[in-house]
Design brief:
Elements (H helix, E strand, L loop, with lengths): L1 E5 L7 E4 L8 H10 L13 H18 L3 E6 L5 E5 L1
Antiparallel strand pairs: 1-2, 1-4, 3-4
Length: 86
């Protein structure tokens, strides 16, 4: 997974690379679940770490078969862009 932040013209983009292999470990999902406890209820809040791990495996299979894709692409009125690519 890659998170790219384009601040504006003439500035270098910020790129954060996160290996998809991290999604294979149940403790990562447990940590994410604990950090989201205070947030509003979401569809994934009722999922167990094992279920989330199975969804991540399906996502990785999809990427191997069809290639990478933009999960989120947002642009502000000032021209700043954030792209999350899987």
């Amino acid at each position: 997974m890659q998170i790219s932040i384009y601040a504006g013209e003439g500035e270098r983009p910020i790129r954060i690379h996160l290996p998809n292999a991290l999604l294979d470990f149940p403790f990562i999902w447990q940590l994410m679940g604990k950090s989201c406890k205070g947030l509003a209820e979401s569809d994934t809040s009722s999922q167990s770490p094992k279920q989330m791990q199975n969804m991540a495996r399906g996502l990785k299979r999809y990427v191997r078969k069809y290639g990478h894709f933009d999960l989120i692409s947002v642009e502000s009125a000032t021209g700043e862009r954030v792209i999350i690519r899987i």
